Amino acid sequence: MVGKKAPARRKWSSRGLFVPPILSCLACFAMNARPSPPDPRELLSRMTIEEKVGQLVQMAPSRAAGRLSSEEKRRVREGRVGSFLNWRHPAGMAEAQRLAREESRLGIPLLFAFDILHGFHTVFPIPLALAATWNPPLVEEVARLSAREGRAAGIHWTFAPMVDVCRDPRWGRIAEGPGEDPFLASELASAWVRGFQGEDLASRERVAACAKHFVGYGAGEGGRDYAAVDLSLGKLLEVYLPPFAAAVRAGAASVMAAFPSINGLPAAANPFLLQTLLRRKLGFRGVVVSDWNAVGELPVHGVAADVEEAARLALEAGVDVDMASGLFAEKLPGLIRAGKVPVSLLDQAALRVLELKAQLGLWSSPPEPQAASRTGPLPAASRGLALRAAREAIILLRNQDELLPLPPRLRSIAVVGPLADDRKNPLGPWPGAGREEDVVTVLEGIRSRAPAGTRVLFAPGCAVDDPSTAGFAEAVSLAKSAEIVVAVVGEPARMSGEAASRADLGLPRPQEELVRALVETGRPVVAILCSGRPLALPWIAEHLPAVLAAWFLGVESGNALADILFGISGPVGRLPVTVPRSVGQIPIYYGRTNTGRPPGSGRDVSGYIDLPESPLFPFGYGLAYTRFAYREIRVAPPVVRRGQSLEASVIVANAGLRAGAETVQLYLRDRVASRTRPVAELKAFQRVSLEPGEERRIRFSLPSETLAFIGPDGELRWEAGDFELRIGPSAASGPTAAFRLENEPWPTPSPAGTP
């Protein structure tokens, strides 16, 4: 790095002595030059066993004030800590880094890690809501800004993105992930990693990404967090692995092992997952970190007799960094000296951590983190991006008689509901360093966007999860006095996220009773549903003329929703998950395999005797303020061979009176294969904006790999046969076309029923 050019005027030292310009330049060069980091392998050769183990140890500081205890300081000085997590106290972080760099024997800097899931200072929509944008470039922008804010606060490593596919909305952590589809999840995983890491991890605007939780965490029994996962090999490889493969291809610096047992063995002690799949099949070369105390929980799972065996199993399985359990620090030195664990495993893990620190430029960067706290407002550019993300995440689920957008000549609007003037819940779970005072509430947004002369009335009606109905009378009276009612209801953010599974996916009491009372007034009611998951609300979907899925939208929640309500922006969000009619339908997802008696094929068919088999709203669904028509689907060539690309297109026309944007989705179905295949698989999508009356032919080019599926050996296989291709607005509709794949005969498949 070139030093700063010395000004022509004479330089003086602090003692008043003249400093020649050439020496001044050299001094500037010395201060600004980046020294080369030590070679990680050479550094490793000089480390003791305890120092190597120290690189594998991740701690959370014990004191709430953010200062290290005397014991923790001693461990840092002795090189027995490699990283800290979820620490946002700048003075304490600076002190710890100084101890590591200046007072430890080898001066190895510390890593500071933090869960930046959907923003650091600027809180964006939750990840599931960002998935609803179907806009990977936008997600990349969100990750880029989040990384910049986090790195400025001294954070080097984020435990994000979470790329767990989930098909059970009872699971609270569905809020943190990309939804139910492996293709959409893969596109988003790549975008998150690119945004967090950029081209140069050493940049002071980038953080190391961590794809989590490897792998299958979203398929826990009963939708319960931490519950056991039992998956066929085919489903593991085809549904749950692809987003991690995409993150690895995008260069993810780290991967987090999942909490639960996967097919009988906890992920933190599962060499098939961490070695066979992650390292050998996916080619991952970065750091594997356990989840919080997952190593310490191995004895509770019943796979380790004691904590010593737990430490051994985790290292042998492929865990490089032990988050928070302390067992690596406590047990590995003795195990290695006793010959129970090869020192080569320790060297591999420590080297990976050292290489990550070198990639992050930790030896070159100034040791002092900048202040993590702030007192001023968010920058306008940050708010602008948050507003754009929130707008695009909102999904119009119902719009009977085109009630929305609201007409410009409204005399009064009644805003009702416990989440209408709420600042806490829009931040969602894992809000980083976000502040409630930065949140624009729905009520504030409506008041700021309402046309001149429109009165905006407000009554909460009830609390978010308090059964009292004492506020109903005021809310109903207010609704009767208004032309239109906007009901802002949903679940509190604490009902989503980790350890927040729900058996009932309705509104917390008495919110649905409040909505019913508002409908009985005869006034048109618009429902805004705030949640971290799809809610099963068939009565609301049937009886309310307009319904918006609003998730937890972050700091610009109110402005974004008001923009959609008043037509300042049109809704473009699409469902990244299937919405059930009832919890009894779960797991419910579009990419199911057929049965011998599919719905509609006769009397005794697969389904329910008390409920339609179909979802309340299908995957990919979302309305606009206009209507789109699809016609003239084309596929070429009609017979395609392995190695050829398939070209598909369809004409999409704006058949309404307003401009709008449509997310055009392409699905494939392999009609005949050696194994049952899903009835539909998303393979491509693109957004198109059209003026009223405008139409455009939307074209897709599908590579040969799109037509393959993963066989029992874990490899792609192409099988000759008939395919169906559909292009439409969701997984449930759109015109279809047929084509055929021709290929060389494949070896005889495994016997039926084997993985």
Layout of SSEs?
Blueprint: E1 11-12, E2 18-19, H1 21-32, H2 40-45, H3 49-55, E3 57-59, H4 70-77, E4 83-85, H5 90-103, E5 111-114, H6 127-131, H7 136-152, E6 157-158, H8 182-197, E7 210-214, H9 233-240, H10 242-249, E8 254-257, E9 261-262, E10 265-266, H11 271-281, E11 287-289, H12 298-301, H13 307-317, E12 322-323, H14 327-337, H15 343-359, H16 380-393, E13 395-399, E14 412-416, H17 442-449, E15 455-459, H18 472-480, E16 484-490, H19 511-519, E17 525-530, H20 538-543, E18 546-549, H21 557-565, E19 628-636, E20 639-641, E21 646-654, E22 660-670, E23 681-690, E24 695-702, E25 709-710, E26 716-717, E27 721-728, E28 736-742
Parallel strand pairs: 3-4, 3-12, 4-5, 5-6, 7-8, 8-11, 14-15, 14-16, 16-17, 17-18, 20-28
Antiparallel strand pairs: 1-2, 9-10, 13-18, 19-21, 21-24, 22-23, 22-27, 25-26, 27-28
Helix pairs in contact: 3-14, 3-15, 7-8, 7-16, 8-10, 13-14, 16-21, 17-21
Please give the order of strands in the largest beta sheet: 13-18-17-16-14-15
- Taking the alpha carbons of the first and last residues, their distance comes to 56 Å
- Tally of separate helices: 21
CATH-level-4 superfamily name of the domain at 383-585: Glycoside hydrolase family 3 C-terminal domain
**Based on the structure given, which CATH architecture of the domain at 383-585 is correct?**
3-Layer(aba) Sandwich
> Helix- and strand-based class?
alpha/beta
Low-confidence stretches: 1-34, 745-755
CATH level 3 topology of the domain at 383-585: Rossmann fold
